[in-house]
Amino acid sequence: MRGLRTTLTLAGARWLWRRHRRSRESTPVSAGRSGAELLAWGAAAAALGAGASALSERRRARRMNGRVVLVTGGSRGLGLQLAREFGAGGASVVICARGRENLDRAVAELTGRGVEALGVVCDVTDPEAVDSLLDDAVDRFGRLDVVVNSAGIMRVGPQRTLPDDAFVQAMDVMFWGPFHLSRAAMERMRGRGGTIVNVTSIGAYLSVPHLLPYSAAKHAWAALSEGMAAESGGSGVRVVTVVPGLMRTGSHRGVVFSGNPEREYAWFALAAGAPLLSVSAERAARRIVAAAASGRGFLVISPIARIGLAVHGVAPGLTQAGMRLVGRLLPGAPERVEERSGSEAADSRIGRLVGVVAALNERAGRRMNQSSRAEERRRDVDSGKDG
Ligand SMILES: NC(=O)c1ccc[n+]([C@@H]2O[C@H](COP(=O)([O-])OP(=O)(O)OC[C@H]3O[C@@H](n4cnc5c(N)ncnc54)[C@H](OP(=O)(O)O)[C@@H]3O)[C@@H](O)[C@H]2O)c1
């Protein structure tokens, strides 16, 4: 009897132990399964959310039907994509830039898409040219509803290697340009209504090492934009401040690199083309047009920019320490300072390697009407700068 009890107890214990082991073994599997299910549900919800937000952005863009929109820097990059997006919403567009060739190509493309488009050669640093740009827009389309300040330039390199003129130029294009245009547009829109959209940058709020002229000018512009928004209450004019993080516009080819140009080009082009760090120009433009149509006053584009801005808001010392670290990782100022455009730097061995890794931004450049090195060479030859 005792033997039977022992046998039964041992068999029961064995059964319990096996069951426990099986349940322990099966726990991670079932947890994995429910984890996978959760992941699938999460992905489906995210896809639905993204779809719904794209649909509502499209709906808002359609509010632009019949409006007249002026985009500075609309010949290529984000400005061109904004013109396409406003045009797709039914607006007529006026785009301006300094270079005639890209401008003509952009107008031809917009017209081919069925968008009523006018291209005006205009340097935004010239207040008189800016005034006549506004006249041209109203003469051609009879009204002006939205002005987008998107024109921008960039010089990359350690501050020690940059001439004072780099700061003067940055302020001219990205502070005084939007200053004159916004003020003149505001006067014309007062009482009748309108929207001014200022494309600043996350660099306006987080000063990025090796981008000091850009960050300083954008900082001043962001302050101007927010101040204008604060003062415009009751005027019928809305001011939208846009703060993009990195966008894949293909603009790295047109940037001027100083110090050790190839190495500066390498870090910049890699960051600007990294999928997790940057957003597509198409996505950015959709969001900006939706903000212009919906009356939103402040728009931050890209998750990284949102996180950076939030952290800077609560712990500026922390972001400063982060930027100091970034500064230490970037190339130092060499003895012999050189300067090259992005297209030239891209022609080097390291540049070609970077081009393979940053393929997304290279492709974006072709979609965004950015000039290739071959085109630049041809222009240099035509203008007698080469050979
Ligand atoms: N790409 C990014 O990652 C990024 C991130 C944050 C903010 N942003 C901002 O977004 C805007 C667009 O950037 P993007 O990458 O599209 O630049 P982009 O491709 O270099 O385009 C710049 C545009 O501005 C025009 N432009 C430059 N100087 C001008 C002047 N003095 N007068 C009139 N037009 C001028 C250029 O044409 P011409 O050279 O023929 O004049 C071009 O059409 C800029 O304000 C930039 O600072 C860009």
Would you kindly provide a brief summary of this structure?
This protein has 14 helices and 12 strands. It has helices spanning 2-61, 77-88, 100-112, 127-141, 164-189, 212-231, 261-273, 281-294, 303-314, 316-329, 342-346, 349-357, 359-367, 373-382; strands spanning 68-72, 92-97, 117-121, 146-149, 155-156, 194-199, 237-244, 247-248, 256-259, 279-280, 298-301, 338-341. The strands form 3 sheets. The protein has a 7-stranded parallel beta sheet, sandwiched between helices.
How are the secondary structure elements laid out?
Layout lengths: L1 H60 L6 E5 L4 H12 L3 E6 L2 H13 L4 E5 L5 H15 L4 E4 L5 E2 L7 H26 L4 E6 L12 H20 L5 E8 L2 E2 L7 E4 L1 H13 L5 E2 H14 L3 E4 L1 H12 L1 H14 L8 E4 H5 L2 H9 L1 H9 L5 H10 L5
Parallel strand pairs: 1-2, 1-4, 2-3, 4-6, 5-9, 6-7, 7-11, 8-10
Antiparallel strand pairs: 9-12
Helix pairs in contact: 1-8, 2-8, 4-5, 5-6, 7-12, 9-10
Bound molecules: NADP nicotinamide-adenine-dinucleotide phosphate.
The site of NADP nicotinamide-adenine-dinucleotide phosphate has 30 residues, from helix 2 and strand 2.
If you had to describe this structure to a student in words, what would you say it looks like?
The chain has 387 residues and is of the alpha/beta class. It has one domain: Rossmann fold (3-Layer(aba) Sandwich), CATH 3.40.50.720. It is 60% helix and 13% strand. The protein has helices at 2-61, 77-88, 100-112, 127-141, 164-189, 212-231, 261-273, 281-294, 303-314, 316-329, 342-346, 349-357, 359-367, 373-382, and strands at 68-72, 92-97, 117-121, 146-149, 155-156, 194-199, 237-244, 247-248, 256-259, 279-280, 298-301, 338-341. It is globular and about 95 Å long. NADP nicotinamide-adenine-dinucleotide phosphate (NAP) binds next to helix 2 and strand 2. Belongs to the short-chain dehydrogenases/reductases (SDR) family. GO terms for molecular function: oxidoreductase activity. InterPro entries: KR_dom (IPR057326), NAD(P)-bd_dom_sf (IPR036291), SDR_fam (IPR002347). Keywords: Oxidoreductase.
